Structure formats: C-alpha cells, structure tokens
Amino acid sequence: MYLVFIHEKYIFKHPQPKRPNSLRIYEAHVGMSSTEPVINTYANFRDDVLPRIKKLGYNAVQIMAIQEHSYYASFGYHVTNFFAPCSRCGTPDDLKSLIDRAHELGLLVLMDIVHSHASNNTLDGLNMFDGTDSHYFHSGSRGHHWLWDSRLFNYGSWEVLRYLLSNARWWLDEYKFDGFRFDGVTSMMYTHHGLQMTFTGNYNEYFGYATDIDAVVYLMVVNDMIRGLFPEAISIGEDVSGMPTFCIPVQDGGVGFDYRLHMAVADKWIELLQKKDEDWRMGDIVHTLTNRRWLEKCVSYAESHDQALVGDKTIAFWLMDKKRNGVVGRKEK
Fold it and tell me: Pfam families from the entry (predicted)?
C-alpha cells in the first residue's frame, strides 16, 4: 500500500497593485511583530499586522528576514537557503497567503533580499558545498567578510550569476513579491566593502582599483532582468557611498536601481535626539535632507532597524527616556 501526498499549488486571488507615485514603506520583521514573547507567524502577521499597517496610511510593506537563516540573531542576513522562506514563521503557502492578503489591502510587498554575502555555515549553507572554499565564493581572504563573519560571492562566476539571477526571479515569480530592497550593496561594489571609508564625492573613490566591477555588472544585470520581466517591480539599493549613476537606467549606462536607500537621514534623527535642542544646526539638518544626486529618487526613514535595534533604541524610547545621553529632560512646571 502506497500513500501519495498531492500538494496543490497556491492560487493567488488578488492582483498585484500598481506602483504608486510615492512610496510610504512600513519596514517589518515577521518574527518580531507579535506583542507576545514568541516568534510570530506569517498567518498572524497577515491577520493582525497587515490591517494595522494599512490603517496607518502606508502603501507598501518591506519584509525582512524572509530567506532561510539558521542564526536568528543575524536578523536574516546570514542566509543558508536562498530559495526557501524562513521556516520559523510558517510554510511557503503561509507566506503566499500573507502576500495575497497584502495585495487585497492594496499594499505592495517588498522583500529585503540578501545577495551581498552568505552564511559561513558548512552544514546547512553554501559554504564548502563542493568541498572547496571557491564554489560560489572568492577563495581565500577575499571571500570572507571580516566584520560580518560571512562568505562573499564571486560575481565574475557564471554559476554565481545564474544562481543569484534565478533567485531574484524566483521570489518575484513564485511568491508575487512586488520588488526588492537589495541589502549591503555598498559592500558588494567595493573590495573594501565601504568599511572605515569616508566618501567625499571624489570620483576616484568610486571608479578605482577598489571597485568590484563584477559586482557592479551583476547589479546592472539583475536590475535589467527585473525591469524586463516584471516592469512594475521596484528595485531599491542600500548604498551609503553615493555611487554615481546608481539610479540611472541600465540602457543609459547606470546601475539601474529605482531608489537609493538614504541611510544618513535616519541616522541624523537619532543624532539630534542625543543633543540639546539649542545645539541643533539647521544648516547641517538641511544638508543631510538634500544631500543626494540630481533627480535621484531616495527612500528615507525616520528610523529603520539599523537605528531602532542594532545597538540603539527606537525614537519613541529616545523621547521617553528622561536622560538622553547626558541631556536631562526638563520637568514640567
């Protein structure tokens, strides 16, 4: 006697919304979205959190930590399986149902995709997959990110290109994501990964021996593929270097992103909350808000996970803290 299990393919019921003229993005981590001390599920996020996001006036939700990762504290950035959704939060169909519900509410769903590095794990990741350290990655020290403790892709390899390009298409085609926020793009584009660097805008900082040309070409190719196969999809790149042509179309010689993630603005708000109001410099604030390349579209947050969780706290807690980094709040009379 044989038992045959037939799994029916999830059928999406609602069309993907059209791209809005102005994105209002709510950044979310499904596992951390519950008010209870548990790892939340795709189903609970779908039923409890998505309606709240819609009610608050957002038109897009960016979901982090989707790709499978063994180390939960990595926030989803040490990916072990690039094609599998995080199993802690539910099944693949649960994730599809979440995205379908978001589309019903008129919300775009953006994925925080990690193509900048991979988990260092050898038992459940790509590292040493064929017994060598160079199957998908650079061999030797160039293949290791010294700060993130992770492996770095060799974007000059045809197999790496096939793997990552098919991965990007998979999430858009199979799960109906509406676009990506590419993580760690600065780390990809330079062999120094942007670490211990202060970018001044001098072109020698962008087009020199430290530029990983293969990585830049990969970004051009993946953006061109996304635009060709999914014209409505949105591509956002996390870059803090100010790389020229970042948001210029590929056919015009650019890298091809629709938006640059403007990290400096969110950092500036936290910096201001650590100072007395009278120490705020208006010229500095205006410069931070307007410091971008001509006509370049940017995504700016009041706060994102980089400010709220990575060694810091939320703006709400900064405001509620009676003592802000030595600045004692004034008592009401």
Answer: Alpha-amylase
